[in-house]
Amino acid sequence: MLLLEFHNKIIEDTLLERFGQEKPEPLEAVIADFDGVTFHLSTPDANARNILLISMSIKCFSQLVPHGVNEKLKEYYGAAIQTPESGYDVTLKIDTAKAPANKEEFARNIARLKRNVLAAPYYKIFADIEAKKGAQQLISLNYRDGEAVYIKPESDRVLVIFNVAFNDASDVVLSKVFLQEYQDARRTMNNAPAVNFSPKEPPLELKGVSGLRVGDNQGFVTFVLFAPHITGKQKERTIDNIQTFRNYLHYHMKCSKAYLHTRMRERVRTFLQVLNRAKSAPENVEKKTITGRTFRRADDPPLSDESELND
Prior knowledge:
By secondary structure, the chain is of the alpha+beta class. The protein has helices at 9-18, 61-64, 69-77, 103-111, 113-118, 120-130, 169-185, 227-230, 234-243, 245-277, 304-310; strands at residues 28-32, 38-42, 51-57, 81-82, 90-95, 139-144, 147-153, 158-165, 194-199, 218-225, 287-288, 294-295. The strands form 3 sheets. Strands 1-2-3-5-4 form a 5-stranded antiparallel sheet. A 5-stranded antiparallel sheet has the order 6-7-8-10-9. A hairpin with a 4-residue loop joins strand 7 (147-153) and strand 8. The longest helix has 33 residues, at 245-277.
């Protein structure tokens, strides 16, 4: 199965292309990313085209502020952080004339801006659990229109619950089959997180939470992350994968639908071929000799025009 990238490829390629250019072209671009995130790349000063501003707008930024997102951004980007542009939540200022020693790593870090912003509450919760601070308050992030993710820390584990909206009833069935594979994987894989899918009704862990969306086209996917998932080197990988889960799920559901439709179209073509082969030849067929004269056997039935004359 395909794993989606955790960074924005357009931002990475743009930075790598502009590093070292003596006279870069002016740039003004708006880029759409997953989860309704928007990036704005611009060169505001025509006389200093090497100065590139990268701004990002994300729906749940205000909900991330109490959980250390600004401190995490300073840790990642330092002096590059600027006062946000109007309509955006984060703005970085990059001087492409001063290429860093490791351009690829620098460009990848900038391209992971969305990932680093959404990672702030996970870092905080994981650190609290490692420090054995006990159960903390549930965190709610409305990161998409009509969808949310809930992070509930406990004494020795973290529950990450996705409230997923499905377009139609068939998506609910496909997702249930797809997520069953996650549950079955625990039988053959060590240290795999527990996964539960609850259609329509929220799990008991969200009891009393306001603003929950319930209904036939709503589903709740719960990941239970244990100590091996939130400590050491595995922590970074866990944050990467948990952020892209919703898009990963919908991507593979669409691929499953496309595969089913392809098989259905192929089956219809096969049935049409069988029907075409089953057609019987017409009874009254006029036969011609090599000279073009009509050839008829004595026992051939009369042609339609002859029968009309006989009448």
